[in-house]
Specification:
single chain; alpha/beta; six-stranded parallel β-sheet; 14 helices; 35% helix; binds adenosine-5'-diphosphate; binds magnesium ion
């Protein structure tokens, strides 16, 4: 690993450093509902401030259309960042304060422009008056965007402590992981996650499939899944994984029971059924699978707790509805019992463990970057890391 670290920037006293953080936190009517990403950005900011630098923090929030939109303002984040740093955080324009948070980078269309020249011009604007750039938004390193890629070329640049920590953990998952190695996959972005299976199959011992993607697996085995999440165009891909897993001796564990509901709603009527009997309840072909069943949760928990390395991405069910959170809770609990390395990756998975009341320190690592960590595990090249000197796996 040849990632340029903070030390490579030399003495920082009296210098102004632009820091790219990922402060893309969930907001509900302007109130931050989970400040995990703000907290994760603190070590680097403290390190720079302690070294005598002044910092200008830049970040995106949500997906505004390249124009200012008050709903996506970082103003509430500036207030929370100030509380956590116990220091005043100026918001908006650089006014010479020790810490400034600029407004949402994506209020300017050049941040995510496909045109390298436009991104470069924006990066040069962001770099004006600064002496160095620290990239610490791990959640965006898989994006070739102005503040992630071009900005690192315009100024002397290095990776922050969060990126270094995230990368260290991900490397342990891909290079010589302690065995047994179990990967737990769930969530709703099925096709996004199938690539991880492809790359990890030769490396893992056990793959546990829950969440929305389990129904594509069940359907691939010929079972009816009612109105559950299903990606028909992935059925052949999934069948090929099942065959390859058998050849490689990898255990893919599919649910034996699931919780189905008559509607996608918190107060829906629900029932636990065998995985091959989803349409066999009073809900018939309208049944929607919203969680793994208790027998499956137990099987998954045992496999997890007996592992030395576990990577979990994607909730087991629609945990936002308490009636369908049990599978996710059981899996989270099992991860806390792992004697070895347990990693939670993915924005919603991380939010789930916090929302369900698990302390962060009960896990080996909670990744701040869902897409970035998945792409890393898929063996993809990550432009935001390469630009910092990273050369990838050998
Ligand atoms: P992450 O952000 O951790 O990578 P995803 O974004 O892929 O995870 O998926 C998170 C979402 O998946 C949650 O909002 C959850 O409600 C949803 N989900 C989990 N199981 C199901 C299911 N059976 N049907 C529909 N959605 C599901
Ligand atoms: Mg998500």
């Amino acid at each position: 690993m040849t990632l340029r670290t903070l030390d490579s920037l030399g003495a920082l006293s009296g210098r102004r450093v632009v820091v790219r953080c990922d402060l893309n936190v969930p907001l509900n009517a302007g109130v931050i509902t989970d400040d995990g990403r703000i907290r994760a950005s603190l070590p680097t900011l403290h390190r720079l401030l302690d070294a005598g630098a002044s910092v200008t923090v830049v970040s995106h929030l949500g997906r505004p259309d390249g124009t200012p939109d008050e709903r996506y303002s970082l103003r509430p984040v500036a207030a929370r960042l100030g509380e956590l740093l116990e220091q005043e955080v100026a918001f908006g324009a650089d006014a010479g304060a020790a810490v400034t948070l600029r407004e949402n980078l994506r209020f300017d269309p050049r941040e995510t422009s496909k045109d390298a020249g436009e991104r470069r011009a924006y990066a040069e604007e962001l770099a004006a008056g600064a002496d160095a750039f620290v990239s610490d938004g791990f959640g965006v390193v898989h994006r070739k965007q102005a503040s992630v890629y071009e900005l690192a070329q315009v100024l002397p640049s290095a990776a922050g402590l969060l990126i270094a920590a995230e990368l260290g953990v991900l490397e342990r998952l891909t290079t010589d992981p302690a065995k047994p190695y179990t990967v737990v996959l769930g969530g709703s972005k099925v096709s996004d996650k199938l690539g991880v299976i492809d790359h990890l199959l030769p490396r893992v011992d056990t793959l546990l499939i829950g969440g929305g993607m389990l129904f594509t697996f069940l359907a691939a085995q010929g079972h009816a899944v009612g109105k559950s999440l299903l990606e028909r165009d992935q059925l052949d891909v999934v069948r090929e994984y099942l065959t390859r897993a058998e050849t490689l001796g990898v255990r893919i564990v599919l649910p034996t029971d699931v919780v189905v509901a008559d509607a996608f709603a918190a107060d829906a009527r629900s029932e636990t059924v065998a995985a091959d009997g989803i349409e066999g309840t009073a809900f018939g072909a309208d049944a929607i699978g919203l969680d793994i069943g208790p027998a499956t949760a137990q099987t998954f928990a045992e496999a997890i707790a007996a592992s030395r390395t576990v990577f979990w991405n994607g909730p087991m069910g629609v945990f936002e509805f308490p009636a369908f959170a049990a599978g996710t809770k059981r899996v989270a609990e099992a991860l806390t019992e792992v004697d070895g390395l347990s990693v939670v990756g993915g924005g919603d998975s991380a939010a789930a463990v916090r929302a369900l009341g698990f302390g962060e320190d009960r896990f080996g690592h909670i990744s701040t970057g869902g897409g970035a960590s998945l792409e890393f595990l898929e063996g993809e090249r990550l432009p935001g890391l390469e630009v910092l000197g990273w050369e990838g796996e050998s």
